[in-house]
Amino acid sequence: MPPTETAADGMLCLSRHENCPWHEALKSAEITWTGLQYTCLKILHLYCKVFEKEEVLELVLRKTCKSCGCDRLQHSVYHEELGSVRDRLGLRDARLNHHAYDSPPGLTAKQTELYWASLAERAPTSVGGATGSAAWRAWRIRALATQLPKQDLSLSHCRHIDEQHRKQFEDFVAARNEIALDIGLACQHHGASIECMGCNKPIRSGSIMVQAPRIGEEVAFHPACFTCSECDELLVELAYCALDGRLYCVRHYSERLKPRCHACDEVG
Questions:
Q1: CB neighbours of 182 closer than 8 A, spacing ≥ 6?
Q2: What is the pLDDT of residues 143-184, one digit of tens each?
Q3: CATH 2.10.110.10 fits 99-268, yes or no
Q4: pLDDT tens digits, 100-128
Q5: Are 135 and 119 in contact (CB under 8 A)?
């Protein structure tokens, strides 16, 4: 399991958010097995499947706590089958294997080293107790869940959009995919220095840059500047949406254009 998903003893890290009445919520009549609070996510998934308690699983995987409204980041609970950006967007690339998802495709080994070196200032020091390279892996898992929520990507993952608004949501998704959603291109810059659109400082010859064609063919960023304009998080696997000449993650692009329900985390 990912390092952010469980504590050292394999139990769910649900107690990290102080004053959260998660354990009280587990005492509800909907949950007949009180030992659920001490189990791991795999057992929770099996329990919910066998006893048809999908709403309990969704409570954990999407919002975690109905009572206090805190999100799963504060509980360090993540789904173990998040895959990659390309998986979530329904894209396939024969050049990539699972272990290559952490680094941008198309870079040589030396260029990949330069890419990660350029992100040193943004490296997570600790995520869910993980440090070093494990912290990057943990950050990626968290970022996939938050920046590309499945309910923003497809109607099939939405449970609370009524029939009247289903077509409107599908049109919104289709338009976003057509004009805004893209994956940045990392490459090595050669030639005269050019200006980074993020920090306005020069991108020098020989350094790695990230291009965002949805914003402009000549637009380039330092890897550390390729962030969401709303949350300032690095864009996971360089997936971005362009709006008014700025970069956004899928979540915050959606929220710029549509309201999001705090309870179910779906956009209206």
A1: 212, 213, 214, 239, 240, 241, 242
A2: 888 899 888 988 888 888 888 888 999 999 999 999 999 999
A3: yes
A4: 446 788 899 999 999 999 999 898 877 66
A5: no
Which three-class secondary structure string do you get for 85-115? HHHHCCCCCCCCCHHHCCCCCCCCHHHHHHH
DSSP 8-class letter at 122: G
Residue 207: name the closest of 187, 225, 237 by CA: 187
CA dihedral 221, 173, 160, 32 (to 10 degrees): -60
pLDDT tens digit sequence for 235-260: 999 999 999 999 999 999 999 999 88
Share of the chain above pLDDT 70, in %: 65
Domains of the chain, residue spans: 1-81, 99-268
Q: Identify the sign of the CA torsion 20, 23, 28, 33.
A: positive
Greatest CA separation for the chain: 67
Sheet architecture: strand order including 246-248 = 181-183, 239-243, 246-248
User: Does 34 score more than 70 pLDDT?
Assistant: no
Pairing of strands 208-211, 220-221: antiparallel
CA contacts within 13 A on the Cβ side of 153: 19
For the whole model, what pTM was predicted? 0.69
Question: What per-residue string of b and e applies to 172-181 under the rule 16 or more CB within 10 Å gives b?
Answer: bbeebeeebb
